[in-house]
């Protein structure tokens, strides 16, 4: 199984009246690359449903999200620029020869959302899950991405989402594996005088104590009965976040802090985990993709050595007890809230603004 977070699809449109055209689909690219290795993976599917849960989208809005890229757009639109947007989400990939072993599958949403622009741009988070037969047993597997944005003096959304995840999974008695980007380091929230180069949550009115278990998604999972099946979270060598935005090495603003912590590759925080429950044990676990400029995930981007992601990867081999277990009911299917009156008003204002821009042209 491969759990993906921030599976991104870029789409663009020529003008106001044209439809969206898919330009880059990084999940499809990854899937195609796995086929080249001889051990292919595919997006998990069952009965017409896919284990892909869109997180949030930014629409392609003419004149407002303009991108200039002649190499990409000339063949598509016969012009140098286009308006572009994207969708990111969580996905579960299954090895091709195991696709037939999927028993149940679904996607769900977290109730806690974050609005960057009220009524117009809301970040949704959720998870994808499936039940996979393995020998006599069946294992439930979840991939998720909790909220990264936080506000001072309130409990971070990542914590609220982790609480919901624990609640949704509490009735699962079969072997359970949860993997993802939890956007929580064991040290969060940081004290006022603590080094915090990754700008993780800090103490405030709602979370007055540093490293508070009540304000930390990682500890929420641990206190919810899950076991960390990934390498020691307190060992700086196992930090998973710190690459530069362009992926061409460590973030220059964080290298010195990382070295002070004990990580020589610029990684300053541990945000990514694999959690288990009701399993026999863990045979092996590792962090990969966090060494630069060497390592199995380093690739040539032009004449540079680049990371595959700004996060490191986490891998584990989980041991299951080979005995029959009852397959639990499907997980709750939380849906996004329908559009409300303020969202409708905001959308109407945006359409009016676009109409005025076009009219002036």
Structure commentary:
- This protein has 6 helices and 20 strands.
- The protein is globular.
- Strands 1, 2, 3, 6, 7 and 8 form a 6-stranded antiparallel β-sheet that branches.
- The protein has helices at 26-36, 70-77, 157-169, 217-223, 255-261, 341-360, and strands at residues 2-13, 21-25, 41-43, 45-46, 49-50, 52-58, 66-68, 81-95, 102-109, 114-117, 121-123, 126-134, 137-145, 176-181, 227-228, 272-277, 281-288, 299-301, 304-306, 313-319.
- It has a single domain (99-360), classed as Deoxyribonuclease I, Chain A (4-Layer Sandwich).
- Helices cover 18% and strands 32% of the residues.
- With 361 residues, the protein is of the alpha+beta class.
- Helix 3 runs parallel beside helix 4.
- The model has no long low-confidence stretch (mean pLDDT 91).
Which architecture does the CATH hierarchy give at level 2? 4-Layer Sandwich
The count of β-strands is: 20
Amount of beta strand: 25-35%
Low-pLDDT regions: none
Rg calculated over all Cα atoms:
22 Å
End-to-end separation: 51 Å
Quick one: overall form?
Answer: globular
For the largest beta-sheet, the strand count, sense and barrel status come to: 6 strands, antiparallel
Number of domains: 1
By CATH reckoning, the class would read: Alpha Beta
Counting H and I runs of at least 4 residues, what is the number of helices?
A: 6
């Amino acid at each position: 199984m491969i759990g993906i977070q921030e599976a991104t699809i870029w789409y663009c449109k020529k003008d106001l009246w044209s439809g969206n055209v898919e330009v880059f689909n990084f999940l499809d690219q990854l899937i195609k690359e796995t086929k080249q290795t001889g051990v292919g993976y595919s997006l998990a599917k069952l009965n017409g449903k896919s284990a892909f849960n869109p997180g949030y989208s930014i629409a392609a809005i003419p004149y407002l999200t303009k991108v200039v890229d002649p190499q990409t757009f000339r063949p598509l639109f016969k012009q140098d620029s286009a308006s572009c947007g994207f969708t990111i989400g969580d996905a579960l990939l299954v090895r091709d020869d195991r696709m037939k072993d999927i028993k149940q599958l679904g996607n769900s949403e977290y109730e806690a959302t974050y609005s960057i622009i009220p009524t117009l741009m809301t970040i949704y988070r959720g998870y994808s899950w499936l039940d996979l037969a393995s020998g006599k047993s069946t294992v439930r597997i979840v991939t998720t991405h909790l909220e990264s944005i936080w506000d001072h003096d309130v409990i971070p959304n990542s914590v609220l989402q982790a609480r919901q995840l624990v609640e949704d999974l509490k009735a699962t008695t079969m072997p359970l594996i949860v993997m993802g980007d939890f956007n929580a380091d064991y040290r969060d929230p940081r004290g006022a005088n603590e080094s915090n180069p990754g700008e993780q949550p800090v103490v405030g009115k709602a979370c007055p104590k540093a490293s508070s278990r009540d304000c930390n998604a990682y500890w929420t999972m641990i206190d919810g009965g899950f076991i960390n099946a990934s390498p020691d979270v307190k060992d700086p060598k196992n930090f998973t976040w710190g690459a530069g935005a362009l992926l061409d090495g460590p973030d220059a603003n964080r290298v010195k802090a990382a070295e002070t912590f004990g990580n020589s590759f610029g990684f300053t925080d541990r945000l990514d985990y694999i959690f288990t429950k009701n399993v026999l044990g863990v045979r092996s676990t590792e962090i990969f993709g966090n060494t630069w400029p060497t390592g199995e995930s380093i690739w040539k981007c032009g004449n540079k050595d680049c990371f595959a992601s700004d996060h490191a990867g986490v891998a584990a081999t989980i041991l299951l007890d080979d005995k029959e277990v009852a397959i639990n009911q499907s997980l709750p299917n939380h849906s996004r809230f329908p559009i409300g009156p303020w969202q409708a008003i905001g959308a109407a204002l945006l359409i009016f603004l676009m109409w005025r821009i076009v009219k002036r042209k």
